[in-house]
Amino acid sequence: MAVVEWTDLVDPTAEQIAGAISPPPPPDAVELLSAAADEGRAPSPLLQGHGHCVLAVLAYPVAVPGQDRADYLELDLVATPQKVVTIRKTGATGTLAPVDSIAARAGAGISSGELFHAAVDDAADAFLELLDGLYEAIDDLEGEIEELTGPDVRRRLSLLRNELLRARRASSATRSIARRIVDGRIDIGESELFPREIEVRFVDTYETLVRATEELDVARDLLGGVRDYYQAKIAEQQNEVAKTLTVIASLVLVPSLIVGFYGQNFAGHFGDWYWSFGVSLGLIVATTVVQLVLFRWRRWL
Fold it and tell me: Which of 259 and 267 is assigned the larger pLDDT?
């Protein structure tokens, strides 16, 4: 088997891409490959056949330590039976997608299809690694939800929800790449870039991505459970406040009724005033004590 040439380009220009691939891909493909990484958005994985070569765009997720988010690094591939070109674009944090697996295999007498599979398989494994970080972030949020303030909880819930959606879209698109290769729906004319043994390897990669997609759905359900618990906690706190205000209003209501009934217009001489004031005050104290005992018995206080 002829040794396959591997070329790694970092943030290349259109001229560099055209010079590294002979014959070069169509102009629209070169424009896609040379476009700068879109900061703040995950790359859209795709697979295209262009007669003499196969082009793929991969999203490589990398969790950001200490934050409830991930960076999606773009790794583009252009493969012919004789050559594989990787194009890496600098992410928002200045990092690049790793190509260690390709570097370890390049020059070892393996085919372009195997190098292509190594890149896609690494991206699939990266989604599983991202899942471990997302599960840990959800567990941390669930454990800290009693101590966090409302704005912090809502902010972290929003960040994690957005990350799960981004990861779900990227993993599904990467799964479609593997599925197209397994189904034999991509070719480069007379040359066979993905023979049967490579398609079998892509079956394992496809199953890895199916598992990642299913686990992302589970993580979304777990996050939904944390959100529901937080909402129930807020509702319970509101009920406690409403109950407290109701108790206070009830304690004030009966004395107000007594004072309104008597009008507090006591007679001018001491005896009648003393007796009327005592009756009014006694009723107020007695009814208040009875209400406090009742509320305490009902565990409203």
Answer: 259
